[in-house]
Design goal:
Layout: E1 6-9, H1 33-49, E2 53-56, E3 73-76, E4 79-82, H2 88-91, H3 93-103, E5 107-110, E6 123-126, E7 129-134, H4 140-150, E8 154-158, E9 171-175, E10 178-181, H5 188-197, E11 200-203, H6 206-210, E12 217-219, E13 222-226, H7 230-238, E14 242-246, H8 249-252, E15 263-264, H9 268-275
Parallel strand pairs: 1-2, 4-5, 7-8, 10-11, 13-14
Antiparallel strand pairs: 1-15, 3-4, 6-7, 9-10, 12-13
Bound molecules: arginine.
C-alpha cells in the first residue's frame, strides 16, 4: 500500500501579478482574487479527496508567489535544501520557507552563494536519478553541487524555451521508469537523455503543454492537472493513470499550475516511487 502523500500548500490570500519574471506574467492582466481562491481550494480538496494530507503554510502579504510552494526547496529524507531564487522578487520567500521547515523537524541547508536553485520546480527525482532543469532559474553548477551533497546521480537537462522555465512545466515523473514530457522544451541532448533513461515517456503536444498539462500532481494513479489536455488524458488512461482536470487559469497568469502550487513533504523521490506501489 502506498503511504499517505504529505503536501505543503499556501492559500492565495496575497497572490497576484505584481511583477513580471517569466513570459506568462503581465501586470496588465490581473488575477481575480475570488476565482483564485475557488480554484486553489478545488485543487486542495481534490488532493485531500485522493488521500493526500495537505499542510498549510501561512500566506504573507507582499509575497504573491509564495503560493508556488514547489519552489521552496528540495526535500531529501530529513534534509531541506532551501532555494536560492534567481530574482529578487522571490528572495523574500526564503526565510518564510526556512522557518516552516525548521519548525517541522527538517535540517535546513542552503546552496553556496550565487548558486541559484529553485527547488522542486527544477529538481525532480525519477527513480534514483535527480533530473535537473537548468538555465532560466537554477544553474547547472548548482545541480552538480546538489547531486554531490545528496550523494545522488544528477541528469542535467538544459531548458531551451523561456515559457518552460522550470523543469516541472515540461516534465512530470509518474513512476521510477515513466514520465510525461514536452519534447520542445529540451534540446536534442536532453531529449536523448530522457529517452535513454526513462522507459515509458508520454509525449505532450505543444498545444497541451501550453495549457500547463505537464505541471501535474501525481497521487497514486491519479494525475491532477489543469483542464485542457484531452490527448494527454487518453494517453494516461492507456498507461493505467486517470487524469483529474481542474481549472487553474488564475495561476497560469503567473506561470504556474497544479504542481507548482504543491510541495511533496515526503520527498520528490518518494513521490515517484510511491505512485508505483
Ligand atoms: N511566478 C512564479 C515564478 O515565476 C511562478 C512559479 C511557478 N513554479 C513552478 N514550480 N514552476 O517564479
Amino acid at each position: 500500500m502506498a503511504e499517505t502523500p504529505r503536501i505543503l500548500m499556501c492559500p492565495p490570500e496575497y497572490y497576484g501579478i505584481e511583477y513580471e519574471i517569466n513570459p506568462w506574467m503581465n501586470r496588465g492582466v490581473a488575477s481575480d482574487p475570488d476565482e483564485s481562491r475557488r480554484q486553489w481550494w478545488a485543487l486542495h480538496d481534490a488532493l485531500t479527496g485522493l488521500g493526500a494530507a495537505v499542510e498549510l503554510l501561512d500566506p504573507v502579504r507582499g509575497l504573491p508567489d509564495l503560493v508556488f510552494t514547489a519552489n521552496a526547496g528540495l526535500v531529501y529524507r530529513d534534509l531541506f535544501l532551501s532555494s536560492r531564487f534567481r530574482y529578487g522578487e522571490r528572495q523574500g520567500e526564503t526565510p518564510v520557507f526556512d522557518r516552516w521547515f525548521a519548525d517541522h523537524g527538517f535540517a535546513v541547508e542552503h546552496t553556496p552563494d550565487d548558486h541559484h536553485f529553485e527547488g522542486a520546480g527544477d529538481a525532480l527525482f525519477c527513480g534514483d536519478a535527480l533530473l535537473a532543469g537548468y538555465r532560466f532559474r537554477s544553474d547547472a553548477r548548482t545541480m552538480q553541487w546538489v547531486g554531490d551533497r545528496l550523494g545522488v546521480e544528477v541528469l542535467p537537462l538544459e531548458l531551451v524555451d523561456p515559457r518552460y522555465y522550470h523543469l516541472d512545466t515540461c516534465f512530470c515523473p509518474l513512476a521510477p521508469d515513466s514520465a510525461i514530457y514536452f519534447p520542445g522544451a529540451f534540446d536534442e541532448y536532453g531529449r536523448s537523455v530522457l529517452r535513454d533513461r526513462i522507459r515509458t515517456l508520454i509525449e505532450v503536444s505543444a498545444e497541451e503543454a501550453f495549457s500547463f498539462s505537464c505541471n501535474a500532481v501525481v497521487v497514486g494513479r491519479s494525475v491532477v492537472l489543469n483542464a485542457g489536455a484531452p490527448k494527454l488524458a487518453r494517453s494516461l488512461g492507456r498507461h493505467g493513470y486517470e487524469a483529474v482536470p481542474l481549472s487553474l487559469t488564475e495561476f497560469i497568469k503567473a506561470g504556474g499550475s497544479a504542481k507548482c502550487l504543491t510541495f511533496r513533504l515526503d520527498g520528490e523521490d518518494a513521490a515517484s516511487w510511491r505512485s508505483a506501489a
